[in-house]
LacI family transcriptional regulator
Amino acid sequence: MGGKSTLKDLAKILNLSVSTVSKAINNSPEISDVTKDKVRSIALLNNYSPNKLAQSLKSQRTKTIGVIIPDVLMTFFAMAIHGIEQTANSYGYKVIICLSNESLEKEAESINTLVNGSVDGLIMSLSKETQSTNDYAHFEEAIRYNTPIVLFDRTSDLLICDKIKIDDTLAAKEATEHLLKIGCRNIIFLTTIYGTSVGEKRRLGYLQAIENTGVEDTIINIKDYAQFECILIEALKQGKIDGIVAADELSAISTIKYSIKHSYKIPEDISVIGFTNGVLGENFVPSLTVVDQHATMQGSLAAETLIKRLEKKIPVEPVHKVLKTSIIERESTLPLFYAK
Amino acid sequence: MGGKSTLKDLAKILNLSVSTVSKAINNSPEISDVTKDKVRSIALLNNYSPNKLAQSLKSQRTKTIGVIIPDVLMTFFAMAIHGIEQTANSYGYKVIICLSNESLEKEAESINTLVNGSVDGLIMSLSKETQSTNDYAHFEEAIRYNTPIVLFDRTSDLLICDKIKIDDTLAAKEATEHLLKIGCRNIIFLTTIYGTSVGEKRRLGYLQAIENTGVEDTIINIKDYAQFECILIEALKQGKIDGIVAADELSAISTIKYSIKHSYKIPEDISVIGFTNGVLGENFVPSLTVVDQHATMQGSLAAETLIKRLEKKIPVEPVHKVLKTSIIERESTLPLFYAK
DNA sequence: CTGAAAGCGCTTACAG
DNA sequence: CTGAAAGCGCTTACAG
């Protein structure tokens, strides 16, 4: 009644000491059942609930995990958040979210504000800038505070910590091989996420796949969506492209969109495969064949790993989990039995 | 060096009292410049940064705001988060995110865990279940704790607090009128968010728009996406539908997708208008004409309002801000000059 | 079985 | 200008 009640308030009402009340509420075996009952009913009556801040200060644990990701608007990260949140909650943990907006500085700020008492641990996917400059000085703070970090998706070999990811090289290799299998012979790799670890590895996988197949390698790197159409169409004019591996969801969709606009038929003329199993690709016409990176699962595993680490339920060596990706065949690629 | 340093640590090193060190660090005028300098250099050397938990316990302010939304995967909410996060950060606030998953129970849990010390205030958009059962008992806890709440988008008249929203009725009316203007005469309203305040209001706006125009009202309410195609096509067969107002982004896209699949031409046969200006509608072919609800702006305003409320920079009467929506004309509706 | 005391890390009114 | 003391709300080792 009228604001939050504290242990002190209850103690006064009950004519007991704060310690006794505390123990009663925490069901300590030290306390008699009679007292426990009395305390509990008064606690209920006064809607008592312990102050989390005070508990955290005492226990040095917040039961909160910090999540720092580049962007909520990318389907992949929205799905990952979903997984993190669900799993964290099931273990009784809350989630604080910070967005780096692909900026190293904001990533650093986020680490610094979270690390000092606000969270027990961190789940991160690195910003573009961090990955391209390879500058990890801003992680020092987290290390000094002994705050465990779990990296997912966009990870780095220079950071020693738990990691959840997919084998991007292998995934892109398989995606490219899928195009080869259905008969594509002029396959290009298109990326708008150049500079990220995953973009780089996917490029590598593409190159590995076409090695010794006689397919020539063409990498298209688009920095600005404003020039997407122009660059893509120019490339399509060069050779008779029949397959495109796009490094993320939106660029795959854009590829299809502009190709169709310029009278290329998808998948008859060009088969397109993308990354991330999101609503965008699922609902597009033609629907997008994608490499499923199991975003929700990555998030969920990251949360589980972090929590087990915090609760010391896993061995000290860093966890390095690599999820198997799978290809979801949809309409943007020729079906296998069509194979020329 | 080796873990976090506290005021006590610094005091010991400096041979000063904890109080003096605290004041020096907070640049209190009570302290001499010489001492301040000494304290600061030692603080820097030991990477001292104050423990947020302890500060919060003392000041009874966490500088954190809790956000409870139904779903991150809906573009609208992802955009809103983006706005909230950005604005909150610019004011030096952190953001804790909880997802209700459209469930009243989870919404209640989130309120309860956040309200007790973890956050200074709450930004919420109500879950479907909360809105359809009209049960607000779980808000009691927030009220008792005197935690200010700002509601956005999915609000309720039964809750007295700050609110940021759009005029959904008017927006749907304008959307429908847009279809009328381009010549549509058989317009249906399609919704998958029946039971939410916004869904209901949009339905009303549609009805208002067609009143006295001779257009017959047809409401299609789809509960399960598995039946979307079937229900939609059945409806299209009934009459010669030439316009569809869809209550959200995904249902608009699905409408277009299945219509095209069944050989209807968009927009030549049917013009489709949806809600939310997201990547999905923007990149679809044909691109989607939408009512822009200014999701990011709603989030940003919600954050600003909450923070001003917390810092007592606005009058006590609840803020009720209604954003003007705008229609973004794209390819899924006939252009105006085509009007029959 | 109950309570007084110390302490988590900080701030601030009060003395000196 | 500096410091001792109290307190934010809790927990827990120690006495009784």
Remarks:
- Chain B has a mean pLDDT of 93.
- Residues 156 and 197 of chain B are 7 Å apart (CA to CA).
- Chain B has three domains: 7-50, 61-166+295-323, 168-292+327-338.
- The domain at 168-292+327-338 of chain B is CATH 3.40.50.2300 (Rossmann fold).
